[in-house]
Amino acid sequence: MYQLQDVFKKSGLPTLTFVEPSEYNKIKVSLRTKGRGLVVEGPSGIGKTTCIKKAILESNNRQEILELNSRDVNDIELIRRLPEMEKIGLVIIDDFHVLKDEIKIGIANFMKLLAEKEDQDSKIIIVGINRAGDSLVRFALDLNNRIDTVRFEKNSDTKIEELIKKGEESLNIEIERKEELVKLSTGSFHLAQLFCFEFCISANVIERQSENKIISNSVELIKESVIEEIGRVFHGYVREFSIGTKLKRAGRAPYLHLLKWLSESEGWSVQMDEIILQKPYFKGSLSQIIEKGFLSALLNKKVELQKVLHYDSYSKVLAIEDPKFLFYLKNLSWKKISRDIGFSNIDFSAKYDFALSFAGENRELSAALFESLTENEIEVFYDKNEQHRLLAENVEEYLAPIYRSEATFVIVILSNSYPKKIWTKFESDQFKHRFGEGSVIPIVYTDMNITQFDLTDKIGYLKFDPKLPFKSQVSEIIEILLKKIETKRSNVV
């Protein structure tokens, strides 16, 4: 008499509903190869560890099996000591990607040694998220030819449907809306098990039925029920991560957008260099949190977030650790969550929030404004930050649209040097029509005769006195600029 918890398993190794993933035979062959290490990588919750355990059982492997988890404090010390041991048998190291580099180096060198010896009594299996193998190879470059790397992709709809049908047969039931459950599972065996379990509970099916029973309950209700249940925990994770180190209401919310892009990704992970190329409107804010280590620091500081997210600073990959978290993200209202957290807006019509126009003599002030604004997750065009993009380009064609329309506001720094420069003349010709639109913000040096730039009293401007303390003036200017962009964002529907 099969019982529900043994058919659709929310945790542990499924037996009645085990489905061979497409990578199954690769795993079996690799397990037969003496000494040669195996790396199994891919998104969480798609059956990597389950597949390995099932393959070991089917191979009648008589070696002693040791399962270690890199998140377990007691296991970590044992993992560290593995290279000192002999005849360790078959060792599975799960969640390898969360280990410290010093331990990864030791394991990498040990796996290389075992492969060279074709050791009959020792074999290591590494399990991790996408690009887990990269963490090994970068510490021992010649290891790549001495290990097998099996990459899991998300499971096909056919595989998910096969799992559901096995459960139906075991419980003598028929689920009418299987297709919806398949789509809801988004390629995850774990989610499929969870949804089918909840579906049966809602239909009062807790064991095999004596007569075939057709279940036609609402999939939407099950979905909402699961979202409500997991949302009690995951809402807090979303908020904590989205705020980052500090809530910047006027900023472009790069942390929140990373979660949004994760929910849309095929492999349940995003690579930062790739995402910056794909999302040019977030180039500055993303570069800020990556290059200055803010993203790594956030996840190291807020340990609870490590349950659902992992960031590898070497490969620059941010990945989801819990498939339920992915499901939650996929069903979020991003506009609503952004308002709840406190962001002014998360939809942007301009590539830059501000574009700086200045003479070379005023670079110190311009650089300070750029640094402070980008620290607040504001997108700023600053020529020095774009030099690599200007190379081999027609500079006038590149700059013209930025000052003409691609920046919400143009900050023009007016000193006595400004009217004398060729490039400032070119830049001002691009944005002078925007004075009437309220899109140009002048910052005027106190020794500057503003009539030289044909400004009138109708245009509000900020002052900068080179004789007064530099930092305090910059801070005051930044505060006003942030309020200006926040007001602009709030008024955009």
UniProtKB/TrEMBL annotation:
Domain AAA+ ATPase span(s) in chain numbering: 34-151
Organism: Leptospira kobayashii
Protein's name in the database: ATPase
InterPro entries tied to this protein: AAA+_ATPase (IPR003593), P-loop_NTPase (IPR027417), TIR_dom (IPR000157), Toll_tir_struct_dom_sf (IPR035897)
TIR domain: residues covered: 351-488
